[in-house]
């Protein structure tokens, strides 16, 4: 199991490490990706002095992310980004990797105070960057996003974003704006992107999405009214698809893929 935390709570536990370099994680050729136990920590002494951040307890080991400037050649290991590992990791490993990457991004992006410009320091007690000049604190932050599959009987609405690979369709998604509830953000995003109104909403689940720092919050939404009119910017094509006649969709490792799979299973189980 993995328990996120900002500082060790108990002395004497074994340690494990998550090496990161330029957004890449060190992965074993034989065993795949996982935090490296101290016994197999293979780097030379100068690299052991690389910046470290405690990220929590991983199966009774204190887990640290280590930021390396170079990508050393480690026998039987290679460097991969999390997108390459998506779908290969179990839930716990994904959570550790996602947290490690987001902590590294937070530390890199808050070397200086956004209020007065002074250099920040790591807080002595909390996971925060502290500006001694103006006493501002900067904690790791997430950007919440809502993602939804709109359903109408045996059909669901899937959309193609210009940034997607050719003929790839997915759920509708967007950032939650300041002052919005999750529900109002969902209704606004669907209205803005495809021009329709949705009715009943059902919470499905969430997923950390460290690209670079989102929290995806998933819903199933029932169609209420309107015709599809794409915005032409974020969405260039959207259509209704029957549960057994879907286009190319995201893998089940992503929350969008899980939402679509859930829709399909609901209708197959009803047969």
UniProtKB/TrEMBL annotation:
UniProt keyword terms in alphabetical order: Hydrolase, Magnesium, Metal-binding, NAD
EC supergroup of this enzyme: hydrolase
Co-factor requirement: Mg(2+)
MF-aspect GO terms: hydrolase activity; metal ion binding
Limits of the Nudix hydrolase domain: 140-265
Protein name: NAD(+) diphosphatase
Pfam families assigned to the protein according to its UniProt record, in alphabetical order: NUDIX, NUDIX-like, Zn_ribbon_NUD
Residues spanning the membrane: none
Annotated EC: 3.6.1.22
Top-rank lineage group of the source organism: Bacteria
PROSITE patterns tied to this protein: NUDIX (PS51462), NUDIX_BOX (PS00893)
